[in-house]
From TrEMBL, chain A:
It comes from Paenibacillus rhizophilus. GO terms for biological process: transmembrane transport. It comes from the Bacteria. SUPFAM superfamilies: Periplasmic binding protein-like II. This is Carbohydrate ABC transporter substrate-binding protein. Belongs to the bacterial solute-binding protein 1 family. The keyword Ribonucleoprotein does not apply.
TrEMBL record, chain B:
One of its GO terms (cellular component) is plasma membrane. PANTHER family: BLL4140 PROTEIN. It is found in: Cell membrane. The chain crosses the membrane at residues 15-38, 72-96, 116-137, 157-182, 203-223, 269-286. This is Sugar ABC transporter permease. It comes from the Bacteria. GO terms for biological process: transmembrane transport. It is a multi-pass membrane protein. Belongs to the binding-protein-dependent transport system permease family. InterPro entries: MetI-like (IPR000515), MetI-like_sf (IPR035906), UgpAE/MalFG_permease (IPR050809). Keywords: Cell membrane, Membrane, Transmembrane, Transmembrane helix, Transport. Residues 72-283 form the ABC transmembrane type-1 domain.
Length: 435, 294
């Protein structure tokens, strides 16, 4: 009996294996055939959204778009918040052809470098400078959202300390930032900074800022890969860590005595409530801050040195953080339908309303008249309009690698378990393995 | 005499009863496992790209991955700590709640409750305790080792995971031990009492040998759970500070899904499977030999 059972199991496994291979083949061939995407004359497309927090708005947008375009059927799928498995990978592995996928801008030169179609001929390129280029230099990414990071501050706490209205751009040197900390401390706030040390924050965001010293950050990435860029002697690279030392110092930082730990929630609570004044994060921090009170917030640029004329001290890093890319493997009809959806977001009143008013996303497009209500988003939008932005530096590196491979060393540096020269070596060695 | 027909009939009978289970077991475990094995022999960064055959290269990379072995060693330390403490504590608790203390049913229920909370939620609850509650207690009462959050120190963060795991599992093991303790025959205990054995001798020479079947189960469960720990690890420390508490499962997930090296991640998962299968297999084999009949 055992033998027959075993035989049966082996048979089952064999069948399953061949079945797996078979389904993969049929999946890819189906996507190539012209009638795959059409149902009774309709074109049906699949669009994915990686921002789980706007899942309902995304679905509503698809419905509104379908109402305006009855010949297109849109299946809008959203990634669950916190899901680590990539939605595009998941759907593709199950044999579906995703027509248009949302992804991080660095993906189209790394993981999905052969995925997207050329979008450089689209009309919306005239209304934005944020179209994301692929390795061959063609625009392949539709800038869906603009986000930025800097020193988030609680307006009422800072204004109480400085007396009167506070202009965040007046803090354009490290010494001025230190003076601000002292003023805040003098006003009765024991720890002006609540410095949270999540891996993506200290690595992907904070530690890539030095790339902005070049007009085009990718030139520095190229030099690092070639091994010709010396970090330890680079004043900008060192400058950002001098500022980090200030932010994480026991004198000003709430967690200074043990700077590492799971402080994300606590840091946002502290700044939200006004028990601390400043933390380093992006406009998305508002979700964690607003839960606490009706306080208002803004961004201070991260100063790198004591030269008030240095553009790095006067601008905020902001740029596209989510892009929409159209799948090469989709049929031309499907691709056209997806392109229509992009135009709908940019030019249709309902599409503009969806992006900014409903989803509360800072639009990359000049023609969008709406404004986000979230104060941090509004600060980014103002910086974009005033031209006070630097490139969103993490778009130029492989964010997964920075979060996993380099972040532990940066955190060790913060905990004073690794010297800055060692950190420089680790980063340089990492880049040498990236070809 | 078994004829061809009756053999077929019995096979049919067997399939009728076990078939549905086998199908679902195959769908949920066997097929993904076989497909996973196949994936380890390929070079895949994303399902978008065509799969390329790469031989045993992934296993070679996995073997040379020092971070994998570091996280494996950390997991072994974690296994030793949790398996020992959970079983000892679970047994002591079981002994106490069967000794006839007042409200013992209430204690059984409350000690078991943590196990009903999912590991993720448990991790977030304890994160709050370690980051906010304990430091504020330490601050108020001037207890130096509680004043700073535990999760920022690599050794304390490790023990934080151990403590939460113990808190979660000890009650569950206690229930298994309670069942074992209740099944120790009264006559044997009486006989040993009449023979003049004191409480310690009764425990040592009668109860414990008869409890071996329970220990086989609990040690197996705690071993397996400790090797596979992920949820508490993820929600409590997320591998931090500076990657010092990355257990082996988390390392595999990071390799496969975050660094997008599916092949190597899957190969490491297979290696983990083999290690855990061998260790738990040996454990069950040898501890079964220790079983005695009453």
């Amino acid at each position: 009996m055992k033998k027959t059972l075993a035989l049966f199991l082996v048979f089952l496994m064999a069948v399953s294996l061949t079945a797996c291979g078979g389904s993969n083949e049929s999946g890819s061939s189906a996507s190539g055939s012209p009638e795959a995407g059409s149902k009774d004359g309709k074109v049906s497309i699949i669009i994915t959204n990686g921002k789980g927090e706007i899942a309902t708005q995304w679905e509503q947008a698809a419905k509104d778009f379908m109402a305006a375009n009855p010949d297109i059927e849109v299946e809008a799928i959203s990634q669950a918040v916190g899901d680590t498995v990539n939605l595009l990978d998941k759907l593709t592995a199950s044999g579906k052809t995703v027509t248009m996928a949302m992804m991080a801008p660095d993906s189209i030169v790394n993981k999905y470098k052969d995925f997207g179609v050329d979008l450089s001929g689209e009309k919306w390129n005239a209304d934005t400078v944020y179209g994301v280029k692929d390795a061959s230099g063609k625009v392949a990414g539709f800038p869906f959202s603009i986000e930025g990071f800097g020193l988030v501050y609680n307006k009422s706490v800072v204004e109480k300390a400085t007396g009167g209205t506070f202009d965040p751009y007046s803090i354009n040197t490290r010494d001025k930032l230190k003076a601000l900390f002292d003023k805040i401390q003098a006003s009765g706030v024991k720890y002006p900074v609540a410095y949270q040390t999540e891996n993506w924050s200290v690595a992907n965001h904070y530690s890539t800022q030095f790339l902005n010293q070049a007009e085009d950050p990718s030139t520095i990435v190229e030099q690092l890969k070639a091994g010709t860029f010396d970090l330890a002697s680079n004043p900008v690279w060192n400058g950002y860590y001098d500022t980090m030392d200030l932010l994480a110092s026991p004198q000003y930082n709430k967690y200074g005595e043990r700077p590492l730990g799971k402080y994300y929630d606590d840091a946002h609570l502290s700044v939200g409530k006004g028990e601390s004044a400043i933390l380093f994060n992006g406009n998305w921090a508002f979700d964690s801050l607003k839960a606490v009170s009706g306080e208002s917030f803004g961004f201070i640029p991260v100063p790198v040195d004591n030269n008030p004329d240095n553009p790095l001290n006067n601008k905020i890093a902001a740029g596209p953080t989510n892009i929409l890319v159209i799948n090469k493997a989709a049929t031309p009809a499907e691709q056209d339908a997806a392109k229509k959806f992009l135009n709908w977001i940019v030019y249709d009143q309902k599409g503009q309303d969806f992006l900014v008013n409903q989803a509360q996303i800072v639009s990359a497009f000049k023609n969008n008249p709406n404004k986000v209500t979230n104060p941090l988003g509004a600060a980014i939008a103002e910086a974009v309009q005033a031209g006070k932005t630097l490139p969103f530096s993490s778009n130029y590196v492989k964010v997964e690698d920075w979060g996993n491979i380099l972040a532990p060393d940066i955190q060790k540096y913060i905990a004073k378990k690794e010297s800055r020269t060692d950190l420089a070596k680790v980063i340089e060695n990492y880049f040498k393995t990236q070809k | 005499m078994i004829t061809e027909k009756s053999r077929l009939k019995s096979l049919g009978n067997q399939l009728f009863f076990t078939g549905p289970t086998i199908i679902f077991f195959a769908l949920a475990v066997l097929i993904p496992f076989a497909y996973g094995l196949y994936l380890t022999l390929t070079d895949m960064t994303s399902p978008i790209n065509p799969i390329k055959f790469s031989g045993f290269g992934n296993y070679k990379t996995a073997f040379m991955d020092t971070a994998f072995w570091e996280s494996m060693w950390l997991t072994v330390e974690f296994v030793v700590a949790t398996v020992l403490i959970i079983n000892i504590l679970g047994f002591i608790l079981a002994f106490l709640v069967t000794s006839g203390v007042r409200m013992q049913n209430f204690f059984r229920t409350s000690l078991f409750t943590p196990n009903l909370i999912g590991g993720l939620i448990l991790g977030y609850i304890w994160q709050f305790i370690f980051v906010q509650t304990l430091p504020s207690i330490g601050d108020k009462l001037g207890i130096e080792w509680l004043r700073l959050g535990w999760l920022g120190d690599e050794h304390l963060a490790f023990w934080a995971i151990v403590i939460v795991t113990i808190w979660q599992s000890a009650g569950y093991m206690m229930i298994i031990f309670v069942a074992g303790l209740i099944n120790v025959p009264k006559d044997v205990m009486e006989a040993s009492t009449i023979d003049g054995a004191n409480a310690w001798q009764r425990l040592r020479n009668v109860t414990l040998p008869l409890m071996v079947p329970s220990f086989v189960v609990t040690v197996f469960l705690t071993l397996k759970n400790a090797f596979m720990v992920y949820d508490v690890n993820y929600s409590l420390t997320a591998g931090g500070p500076y990657g010092s508490t990355t257990m082996v499962s988390m390392h595999v997930v990071q390799k496969a899904f975050s660094e997008n090296i599916y092949g190597v991640g899957q190969a490491e998962a297979i290696m983990l499977f083999v290690i855990v299968a061998v260790i738990t297999g040996l454990q069950v084999y040898f501890s079964k030999k220790m079983e005695v009949a009453a």
